[in-house]
Write a structure and sequence with these properties.
The complex is a heterodimer of chains A (402) and B (305).
Chain A (H helix, E strand, L loop, with lengths): L3 E7 L4 H16 L8 E6 L5 H12 L4 E5 L3 E3 L2 E3 L3 E7 L3 E8 L6 H15 L5 E6 L6 H12 L5 E4 L11 E4 L2 E4 L2 E8 L2 E7 L3 E13 L2 E5 L2 E2 L2 H7 L3 H6 L2 H5 L4 E7 L2 E7 L1 E4 L5 E3 L8 E6 L2 H18 L7 E7 H7 L2 H15 L5 E6 L2 E4 L12 E4 L3 E7 L1
Parallel strand pairs in A: 2-3, 8-9, 22-23
Antiparallel strand pairs in A: 1-6, 2-6, 3-10, 4-5, 4-23, 7-12, 8-12, 9-24, 10-11, 13-26, 14-15, 14-21, 15-16, 15-20, 17-18, 17-21, 19-20, 22-26, 24-25
Helix pairs in contact in A: 1-2, 3-4, 8-10
Chain B lengths: L2 H98 L6 H28 L8 E3 L1 H18 L3 E6 L6 E3 L1 H17 L6 E9 L2 E8 L20 H5 L8 H11 L3 E7 L3 E9 L14
Parallel strand pairs in B: 2-4
Antiparallel strand pairs in B: 1-3, 4-5, 5-7, 6-7
The chains are: A alpha+beta (402), B alpha+beta (305).
Chain lengths: 402, 305
């Protein structure tokens, strides 16, 4: 038994035709008719009119399940694209996919996560993994995950990526069937007899000694070792607070983010947190939550280490699959990595490095995200140690095989 | 225990104690050294990080300057177009008048003027195309047509200049050559550049050979000439902007050095390949392959009203 999978992309300037085209091509590649699909995943650029695009896709699929979202760049096994739409259609006998969605992250992030998970759990109480795309421009990624965990339990396999909008940081969209959301969540629960693999790796390395978070509030890092948080950047970057406020820290931070020290079975790992802004009181607003008592180090990134990390992420995913060839792989690749590489050739190098491990012909669908979802260290075998976390600057891979 | 044994034990203890004290002193010194090294390393790391940031900022500024320059060139070329169009139109009127009056003493000058104006118009057109390519505004609009017909059209336009220099044009375009998907305007420009070069750089009584065949799911076009050839040292940079080979410059043939850059770009944008084989004094052969279909799948008719 095996999955029937097909991926495709379209750059058609008419969004409705693009939606029709990408589904038709994917179906053709998979050898499937629309009514035979178990799930379709679509990622697209905000450059395309989302309503028309979704209309086209829904028409081509005749109402079958669609999930997906907007991106900061699209990725398939045939290349890296921009301003395009990509899709993967899947037919599976062994895996049951149950879709879920929720709106209103801005009002209540945790509540939205809860609603999303409840919808899935109601459809299928036997799920043992969730893949989701939560809009983190609208609220805290960690709070959303907490909402999901309140339904599925503390230790649960959650993978996914935060939708993007081509680096504008204004508005992202999520797809749930023919429903177009913004500031919402979309995703699927998976159950059945199948194998999965998760790879989680960033490649940034720590610099200097750890500093303790002595004051924090949600995603706001207020003090490190008793001094205003910004001091760590003043220290290493040699810039004063005023300069750091003007030169958006977010841009420098792509190469020099902070890493929260985490002890795992594999040793010391670093959960990256991107600084977004420096506030007047010297505190730093991060892309996700940080807690008092946690230890952080300044992290340094390089293109070579990043590409190597992408490979390691793929290797870990393959290892989880226990020798089975992955039949469909989803990639959640942080936009920060794309910015780190700079030129198109290097982005492609990273994707090719992953493909050298998972197989050049393995159907791959992914996008450049505003944050990634995965268990710390990619731990999925020992469920008691499966600790779902929100990551930054990381390459998350999710592979499935029947 | 006897006092002798006690003395022995005491001596041993003192020896062990001294050993530990020495080791302690050693470790403290090593520790101090390591702390010092760590301090220096931290200093070095900070210096390197700050240098890295400086370079990144310089890089960003350079990229911004490059974009500004491209924009300026694009605006300037656009603004040149309007007066040039007027000049071209006026000189064409003048030329028509001289054709009516064959004894007009200024006939030759007007013809020359028309030639020069056309060259300037082409140059500005090239500059605009280059700036569009660099700014990523060089979008392709595919339609299904025959590359064979396109080649034949180009050959018609160069017939006169080829004949005037006694250059033989041989064409081998299979009648069964299938239609393919390409941007007709851009492909015309791309192929015309190569064919123009072939004629331009071939001395009188030479030959230019155009062939188009289908192989697998590609169409292969070869354009070969018996011209002055491209010396080996120019091979690597042939497709660079503004690059002109030494023997082309020596010949004092006119050219902007933009044609091949534009052609290379158009072929690549069509997911095709362009290669050449050339020897100085013998001739040049350009081989271009183009896929028959582009990524846009022809959508099934039933969805379209």
């Amino acid at each position: 038994m095996s999955l029937q999978v097909g991926t495709a992309f379209s750059k058609n300037t008419d969004p409705k035709h693009a939606g029709l085209e990408v589904i038709e091509q994917a179906l053709e590649k998979a050898g499937l008719k629309a009514e035979e699909t178990s799930l379709t995943v679509i990622f697209s650029s905000i450059a395309m009119n989302q309503e028309k695009l979704l209309q086209g896709a829904n028409e081509a699929l005749g109402g079958k399940s669609i999930i997906g979202c907007t991106t900061a760049g699209e990725i398939t096994d045939s290349g890296v694209y921009e301003e395009s739409v990509i899709a993967m259609v899947i037919k599976s006998e062994a895996i049951t996919f149950s879709t879920g969605s929720a709106a209103g992250i801005k009002k209540d992030a945790q509540g939205a996560g809860k609603t999303f998970a409840e919808e899935i759990k109601e459809k299928d109480p036997n799920i043992h993994a969730i893949m989701m795309m939560p809009d983190v421009l609208a609220g805290s990624g960690s709070a959303i995950v907490e909402g999901v965990l309140s339904v599925v339990g503390e230790h649960f396999i959650i993978v996914g990526g935060a939708p993007g909008d081509d680096y504008l940081f204004k508005k992202t969209y999520q797809y749930a069937g023919n429903r177009l959301l913004d500031g919402g969540i979309t995703g699927i629960g998976l159950s059945g007899e199948f194998s999965m693999g998760v790879g989680v790796r960033h490649g940034w390395i720590p610099v200097g000694e750890a500093q303790e978070v002595t004051k924090a509030d949600g995603a706001k890092l207020i003090e490190l070792n008793g001094a205003p948080a910004v001091k760590i950047y003043e220290d290493y970057l040699g810039k004063k607070t005023e300069e750091l406020k003007k030169e958006p820290l977010a841009r420098l931070a792509i190469v020099y983010p902070l890493g929260i020290v985490a002890e795992t079975a594999q040793g010391e790992e670093y959960l990256i947190r991107d600084p977004i802004t420096v506030n007047d009181d010297g505190s730093i607003t991060l892309a996700a939550e940080i807690q008092k008592g946690e230890k952080v180090k300044l992290m340094v990134g390089s293109a070579e280490e990043s590409i190597e990390a992408a490979k390691v992420s793929a290797q870990k995913m393959m290892h989880d699959l226990d020798g089975k060839k992955p039949e469909a792989v989803f990639m959640f690749n942080c936009i920060a990595r794309k910015k780190l590489y700079g030129v198109k050739e290097k982005h492609e190098e990273e994707i090719k490095a992953v493909q050298s491990i998972i197989g050049k012909d393995t159907p791959l669908l992914g996008f450049y995200t505003y944050g990634e979802q995965a268990p710390l260290g990619g731990e999925i075998k020992n469920i008691k140690q499966c600790d779902p976390k929100f990551h930054n600057e990381t390459m998350v891979l999710f592979g499935i095989a029947e | 225990m006897g006092s002798q044994e006690l003395q022995k034990l005491k001596a041993e203890h003192e020896k062990t104690l001294k050993m530990f004290i020495d080791r302690d002193i050693d470790l403290r010194q090593t520790n101090k050294k390591l702390e010092q090294e760590q301090k220096e390393n931290k200093k070095t790391i900070k210096m390197l990080i700050q240098r890295d940031i400086q370079f990144r900022q310089i890089n960003e500024r350079l990229e911004a300057m490059d974009r500004e320059k491209s924009q300026f060139i694009s605006i300037a070329a656009h603004q040149l177009r309007t007066p040039l169009t007027a000049i071209k139109w006026l000189t064409q009127i003048l030329q028509k008048d001289t054709q009516k009056n064959p004894h007009n003493p200024q006939k030759e000058q007007i013809n020359k003027l028309n030639e020069i104006v056309q060259k300037v118009v082409n140059l500005v057109g090239d500059i605009l195309n280059v700036s569009r390519i660099e700014e990523g505004r060089f979008g392709l609009k595919y339609s299904k047509a025959s590359l064979g017909s396109l080649l034949k059209d180009i050959l018609k336009t160069v017939e006169v200049s080829a004949r005037s220099r006694k250059i033989t044009i041989k064409k081998n375009i299979g009648p069964k050559l299938p239609e393919s998907e390409f941007d007709p305007e851009k492909m015309h420009l791309a192929l015309a550049n190569i064919i123009d070069n072939a004629i331009k750089y071939t001395p009188t009584k030479g030959t230019v050979n155009i062939k188009a065949t289908k192989k697998d799911s590609q169409i292969t076009i070869t354009i070969s000439d018996t011209g002055i050839g491209i010396p080996k040292e120019d091979h690597g940079r042939l497709f660079d902007k503004f690059y002109r080979g030494n023997n082309a410059l020596k010949q004092e043939t006119e050219g902007t050095g933009l044609g091949l850059f534009i052609t290379h770009n158009i072929i690549k944008a069509h997911s095709g390949t362009i290669n050449f084989d050339s020897r100085k004094g013998v001739g040049t052969t350009f081989t271009i392959t183009l896929p028959i279909t582009q990524s846009s799948w022809p959508p099934r008719k039933k969805f379209y009203s």
